Amino acid sequence: MSKPWIFISPSSRGIGHALTAHLLRTTSLPILATARSDPAGVKESLVSASANNRTSKDDGSRLHVTHLDVTDESSVEAAAAKAAELFPPSTHHLHLAFALPGILHPEKQPRRIDYDDALETLRVNTLGPLMLMKWFGDLLPRKGTDLSDVRGAEAAGFRVPAHATWLTNSARVGSTADNRLGGWYSYRASKAGVNSITKSFDLHLRMRGAGNAMAMAYHPGTVKTGFSQEFWGNVAEDKLFSPEFAVRKMLEVVASRTVQDGGRCWDWKGEEVPP
Ligand SMILES: NC(=O)c1ccc[n+]([C@@H]2O[C@H](COP(=O)([O-])OP(=O)(O)OC[C@H]3O[C@@H](n4cnc5c(N)ncnc54)[C@H](OP(=O)(O)O)[C@@H]3O)[C@@H](O)[C@H]2O)c1
Fold this sequence. Notes:
Order of helices and strands: EHEHEHEHEHEEEHEE
Helix content: 25-40%
Bound molecules: NADP nicotinamide-adenine-dinucleotide phosphate
Oligomer: single chain
């Protein structure tokens, strides 16, 4: 039986921080999380955030936080090497992976587009998850990997799916069909790109994993993090989710997808976001 582990990148703040604290609190699985700076401080903050109502009896020693900047490929490679050291592929497999990095430069008019900002958006939001797939993808289960140990990992409030899941955070505005307002040129393109990359990666996993692993893109709704702060005033209270609520919805969607649902973008209600 292969032992499952969880990967979350990044975990320094926002949705990734809330997700890591939640999974630390509600599952018994080991977790590798990442931060661009101060991994020790991020670990301390995650352990403290997960302490309330923790169901498993441990002090956070299951949580490892390592340095990773998605725009620096050597740091992604080094983090994957660390993962293989902590969780040797001969005995372990990556069961839940969350690729979450994202930045936004909300250009309203073409003349407001700054070349360097647009390039940075594509580097973080599109090439970032692609580099995570490149270096961490081999740690997902292959055809024939025995996943039966996963049943023992279930805990309060979250049914860990039998197959491994790779989730890339996307956004509804990455949908070309659903683009009714325009604007946000670089961010929309970066998320359309990451949806395309996630589809290709899912097809790769179908060949490699034969039903043991899938990849999906995900729209979390508008979540009250630093990312959306500029727009909090424009969003109705019931449409602005707390990070904790967003994380619970994300895990509900992960738990209810099958391998056949891979390659598509799902929103927090479990409805498909069209390409
Ligand atoms: N919040 C929303 O309303 C919303 C809606 C739709 C989609 N999303 C998507 O959800 C994801 C997470 O958003 P969030 O709300 O949690 O954002 P957030 O609170 O602004 O956090 C962004 C995260 O990305 C990290 N990051 C930025 N540049 C990075 C790089 N070069 N390498 C590694 N990590 C980097 C940040 O790390 P540092 O702490 O080091 O800066 C931080 O952990 C993003 O992909 C976003 O597009 C969010």
